[in-house]
Amino acid sequence: MRLMDISVVICTRNRAASLDRVLASAAEMSVPDIAWELLIVDNGSGDDVGKVVDRYKSRLPLRLERQPEPGLSRARNCGVMSARGKHVIWTDDDVILDPQWLVAYSEAFRLRPEAAVFGGKIVPVLEPPCTDWFQQNLAQLWELVATRDFGPEEVPLSLADGRVPFGANYAVRAIEQRQFPYDINLGAGTGTVGEETDVLRSVLESGHTGYWIPTATVYHIISPGRQTIEHIVHRYKAQGATKIYLSRRHGHERTSMMMLAARIAVTYIIYVVARVFDLQPFWIKRLKGYAFWMGALEERLRNG
After folding, report:
1. Does 66 share its domain with 41?
2. What pLDDT is attached to residue 2?
3. What is the pLDDT of residues 162-177, one digit of tens each?
């Protein structure tokens, strides 16, 4: 088996049309003089992922792996075990890759051989039709749309300053990536989020360094179905559940159910009043808080 310079890994589940779009952008990228592969991990899709991959095999160095058991962390771990590259670059099936994306990462790996983690810019792009209130409050919804921009200069990644990449655009040196598997209780398909943040935090806390690569850019397509109240609630409930799960995993003191219930009640009442008077972005902030604490309580009820 030939050792590659870079493995780009995309995990996908029931998003054949989105996968087609990101592969189309990959086929138009500038490609440096490297050995690389594009690994697609099908996480139990029921649509035409295989046919989409076949359409691009003449234009891209594609491989398809299958992890039928749902769960993004399971799919990521499958990708880690299957990847042949010295560095693993992660992106999502709902992005468009900048033409210089692969070049930017390849150059960063060459110039920063001591670094284990890299991250690039994520620019949200709202797919029409868009609602005005959502479009006007992207700064409030930065976690939901996965905005990541630490400026135009290359800077060290930092846990203390919150400079940590997001899942749609980051890279890990393969040797460290294999040392820190993804927690199968985190990530899409589990009711939680942040499986990549968990791993990146572990890598950086173990003493390794990382860098922000501003020219490694992806454009995150936000479909109309994710520009809704329902999706905001879904996303921030998952964030609340993640907080409780990680607190339990690390043996921290648990927030009482009575306290969680009180926070839910207070934030919901304030949200309703602010929504009646359309006090943006205040009502959006309170909706996020309500969903967060609801997710936290549900996680406590599920697992004690």
Report:
1. yes
2. 55
3. 999 999 999 999 999 9
Determine if the pTM surpasses 0.85.
Answer: yes
Q: What is the pLDDT of residues 109-119, one digit of tens each?
A: 999 999 999 99
Determine phi and psi for 141, rounding to 5 degrees.
-110, 30
117: its two tokens: 């983690």
- Name the domain boundary from 224, 247, 282: 224
* Alpha carbons 186 and 190: distance in angstroms, whole number: 6
Q: How far apart are CA 143 and CA 12, in angstroms?
A: 20
d(CA 9, CA 82): 10
Q: Which residues contact 57 (CB under 8 A, 6 or more apart)?
A: none
First-residue to last-residue Cα distance in the chain: 47
Rounded to 10°, the helix 282-303/257-276 angle is: 150
Q: Is 32 exposed, middle or buried (0-12, 13-18, 19+ CB in 10 A)?
A: middle
- CA pair distance 64, 158, nearest whole angstrom: 34
Which residues constitute the domain of residue 251? 229-303
150 and 284 together in one domain? no
Task: Give the pLDDT confidence of 117-141 residue by residue, as tens digits.
Answer: 999 999 999 999 999 999 999 999 9
Other Cβ atoms less than 10 A from the Cβ of 262: the count is 12
